[in-house]
Amino acid sequence: MELVIGTKRWSTWSMRPWLVLKATGAPFTETLIQLREVETSTAEIRRHSPSGLVPALKDAGVVIVDSLAICEYLAERFPGLWPADPVDRALARAAASEMHSGFGALRRECPMELGLRTTQPMSPEVEKDVRRIVELWMGLLDRSGGPFLLGGWSIADAFFTPVATRFESYGLDLKICGDDGRAQAYAEALLQTPEYLAWLADA
Prior knowledge:
Number of helices: 9
Radius of gyration: 17 Å
Shape: globular
Structural class: alpha+beta
Helix content: 40-55%
Number of strands: 4
């Protein structure tokens, strides 16, 4: 398998399937394309990805684009990436899908920038996003008992790892969004997984 990704400091969508593929233990080749280099990156991505976007997974003569589609493909090949219980699996998929399609204000105002440490007040729009994330996390942690959203680490946790980096980078105060300490502890746990630490070391 070959996974085509963008710059590790910035590319949240690349991080998600990379973490999942790393967690499988399967060998893969990583092709890194430096983003924000207009003269090279677009043409280079097109060589690998018909959508012109990263990430893209190449396997068995097929190219799969979109981070969630890649993770679903990996889950078919490597059982255990989603929870075994059907209800837990549905909740994990719903959480990953909500992250995949939502939280636009957080994305726009707090882009991932690994290594950045700053503080800034949350806009009302970002606060709304963060409140929903905290609510979602605590509800799933209540159900599972942790340490990850549905107990053991899953694709859903991979999808929220870039969110945890944003909370750290921008010093966002989860307490004002209803956190009783569990959401912060979960975010910190995401940033201590071996897979994330390997990504961070490369970034």
